[in-house]
Amino acid sequence: MPVNIYLTRRIPQPAIDLLSSYFEVSINPHDRNVRRAELLEHLKDADALLCQHTDSIDRGVIDSAPRLRCICNNAVGYNNIDVAYATEKGIAVCNTPGVLTEATADLAWALIMSCSRRIVESDKYVREGNFTGWEPMLMLGSDIYGKTLGIVGMGRIGEAVARRSAGFGMKVLAYHPRRPLGESPEGWHYVDLDTLLKEADIISLHVPLTPETKNMIGRDELRLLKNSAIFINTARGAVVDEEALIEMLTSRKIAAAGFDVYIDEPYVPPELKALSNVVLLPHIGSATVETRTAMAMMAARNAIAIFKNETPPSRIN
Ligand code: GLV
Q1: One domain, residues 106 and 76
Q2: Same domain, 90 and 205
Q3: Strands 182-183, 189-190: parallel, antiparallel or unpaired by DSSP?
Q4: pLDDT tens, 61-114?
Q5: Could you tell me the distance, in angstroms and rounded to a whole number, from the CA of residue 235 to the centre of ligand 1?
Q6: By the 8 A CB rule, do 64 and 42 touch?
Q7: Of the residues 236, 242, 292, 301, which is catalytic?
Q8: Helices and strands (H and E) in the chain: how many
């Protein structure tokens, strides 16, 4: 009997070629996310699933897949998968950490710079024909050099964002629940979350979405931010109270924010779209040709290793 893998979206060709050397590959032919009914149908005879973080792999989906031996997420985050239930069913769950660290850190910096120097607003201003001459008070933003960067979650991506700040002469405050407080060998200052939120000029989130981190930056935490603070989220929308953040941005209780992620993607609240002090991206943290290819290759290697009874590059359960 052939070993079947179902791909919920087309991924870079080298990864499809690699999968084809081992599996009978079938791919959602549409240029959109797979619909639940389509997924349930395809999983009836799938031995492996290669999915995206936009696919909800819950109990019902897992129950529709009697042959399934592995769920390979083409993402580092796996909050879309009921890992506990998959584990109960003896199904391996894999993800793609590491290969997207630098691209995601770059994008966090793109947002830091865009928000600090009002890049998107300035671009719009020029395109709309408003640039009629240099002006001394035009588009004044805030310095990055010498400021304090607060990083919430010092995993691989948080650390990569911190490393980049050396060129900007910044002080780094870091929050990580399992690291001792005080100065690290890199010169980063590990502090409690409240201290970070009160003292940082720029705050960047890098925690996974788990029951513990859901809404960890709520209304009370947001109130601690400086009026001049810039808030960046390239992690997951649900880590932050989005409504409270929009209120703070609207009333200018904080200066600006850069969003790559939202609570209910792809929905972006109209109140947020109406603000000029935000930069809004469509969840593109890892979206480079090199990184998306590396992620897909890792997801493919995870799937093949499970079937060869080898240790996959990254298994969660
Ligand atoms: C993207 O959001 C990922 O988790 O890889």
Answers
A1: no
A2: no
A3: antiparallel
A4: 999 999 999 999 999 999 999 999 999 999 999 999 999 999 999 999 999 999
A5: 8
A6: no
A7: 236
A8: 12, 13
